[in-house]
Amino acid sequence: MDIKTNLQHLQKSITGSDIMSLKTTDLFHNNGLPEEDMPESTALNFADAMNRALLKVNDQQIEAEKLTQQMITDPASVEMHTVTIAAEKARMAITFTKTIADMAIKTYRDLVNLR
Description:
This protein is an all-alpha fold. The chain has helices spanning about 5-10, 45-75, 80-110.
C-alpha cells in the first residue's frame, strides 16, 4: 500500500493540517520526558501570522487616535504621557511594518533578477 491509500483511510480531522501530534506508547521513546502539547499558534501559516501582525499594528494606530481625540474632547480623562506613549508605539509599529515590507519587496526583486 502506498501513503495516499493509507491517508485516505484516516479521518479528515487527523489529516486536516500540516502538523499532526504523535503519541508515544513508551516513556523511553521520549527520554522519559513528559509530552508537551503543541500550541495552536504554531499551526498558523505565514499569511495568517502576517495578517495578525498587521491587525495589531492597525489596533495600535486606532488606540492612539482614540486617545488623542479623548485628550482633545475631555483633557481631564486621560494623561498626556499615556497619549504620547500610545502615539509613539503606533508610529514605531508602522515604521517597522514599512521597513519589513520594503525589505520583502527588495528581496523579491533580487530573486527575480538573479543572473
